[in-house]
């Protein structure tokens, strides 16, 4: 009986749409907002916006270009599993998985759209991919993430005046996961906190359901009380899942070679780094260039670190994030193998 190969995160490539949007863009629209001075909404210098007619499927196709260039189109078209997450699905009834599979030329046995993972969806995607491949459901999985709410929801005429609008940015990522020992996934921790699931709400004036015809535009329903709770949960959850993974792989958090997280704001980034006792140079941070990338934050930041030479073959990389108002959190550790071939696929 042959030994089962581990599951590896072999490579990933990313896409940032359009030219950078500066903080001045939002300053020109800003009105008096009681939350303007809150640490949650201190704007980055830049972020990117999807074009008006650019779809999540377009973004994923553009993000996949780097993988195809390095590994050939067959490694994508022949993948057995496609796992997707889109912040704002092009079509709410059936998600984006089928359209993304078609655009990438795939005929996978599994197409799974994840929504509950939120900003931690990349970690959840790694867990689903590892579970399926380890169970014999294929040899290759593709994870596709599209964050497209910044140039759509947050750039609506009445929403762009709010403090919250200046923080999000758009981007996409596609990752290749295979049965191989080239860049093994060492451990994954995912936790659901269902008691917080209703704490993220939409604010619409006059009140309406999100799907109803209306005159008011939808934004996130932030209040000082909600922000205080979210800050407390995020500060606790990301270190908790990070420490759980580190404990199981036998590494002290302070000895991690690279820490990659989502990036809601500067405060979370600082607090998470300090909780793990890591210096800034070992925590990837693109907030000033990209803003809050939601679920695309981890793969975009990791791709940036690889491209910039901040991670080398053999390094242990820890990825961690929490989602929404704290209803989900996850962490994953990978022993990075470097950008080489696509492994034993």
Automatic annotation (TrEMBL):
GO function term, MF aspect, one: 3-oxoacyl-[acyl-carrier-protein] synthase activity
Keyword field: Acyltransferase, Transferase
Keyword DNA-binding: no
Beta-ketoacyl-[acyl-carrier-protein] synthase III C-terminal domain sequence ranges: 246-336
GO terms, biological process: fatty acid biosynthetic process; secondary metabolite biosynthetic process
Residues covered by the Beta-ketoacyl-[acyl-carrier-protein] synthase III N-terminal domain: 116-194
Name of the featured protein: 3-oxoacyl-ACP synthase
Species annotation: Mycolicibacterium alvei
């Amino acid at each position: 009986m042959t030994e089962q190969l581990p599951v590896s995160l072999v490579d990933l490539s990313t896409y940032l749409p359009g030219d950078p949007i500066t903080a001045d863009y939002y300053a020109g629209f800003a009105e008096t907002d009681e939350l303007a001075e809150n640490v949650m909404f201190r704007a980055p210098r830049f972020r990117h916006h999807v074009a008006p007619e650019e779809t999540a499927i377009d973004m994923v196709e553009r993000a996949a270009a780097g993988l195809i260039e390095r590994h050939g189109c067959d490694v994508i078209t022949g993948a057995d599993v496609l796992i997707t997450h889109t912040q704002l699905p092009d079509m709410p009834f059936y998600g984006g998985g089928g359209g993304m599979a078609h655009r990438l030329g795939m005929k996978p046995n599994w197409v799974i759209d994840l929504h509950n993972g939120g900003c931690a969806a990349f970690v959840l995607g790694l867990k689903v991919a590892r579970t399926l491949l380890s169970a014999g459901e294929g040899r290759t999985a593709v994870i596709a993430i599209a964050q497209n709410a910044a140039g759509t929801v947050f750039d609506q005429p009445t929403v762009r005046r709010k403090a919250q609008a200046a923080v999000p940015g758009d981007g996409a990522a596609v990752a290749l996961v295979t049965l191989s020992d080239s860049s093994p996934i060492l451990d994954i921790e995912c936790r659901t906190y269902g008691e917080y699931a209703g704490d993220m709400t939409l604010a619409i004036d006059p009140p309406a359901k999100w799907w109803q015809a209306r005159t008011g535009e939808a934004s996130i329903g932030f209040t000082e009380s909600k922000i205080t709770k979210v800050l407390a949960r995020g500060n606790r959850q990301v270190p908790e899942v990070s420490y759980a993974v580190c404990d199981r792989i036998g590494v002290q958090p302070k000895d991690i070679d690279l820490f990659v997280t989502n990036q809601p704001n500067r405060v979370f980034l600082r607090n998470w780094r300090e909780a793990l006792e890591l210096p800034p140079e070992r925590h990837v941070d693109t907030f000033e260039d990209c803003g809050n990338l939601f679920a695309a934050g981890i793969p975009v930041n990791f791709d940036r670190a690889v491209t910039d030479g901040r991670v080398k073959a053999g390094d242990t990389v820890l990825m961690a994030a929490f989602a929404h108002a704290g209803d989900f959190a996850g962490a994953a550790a990978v022993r990075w193998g470097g950008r080489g071939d696509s492994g034993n696929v």
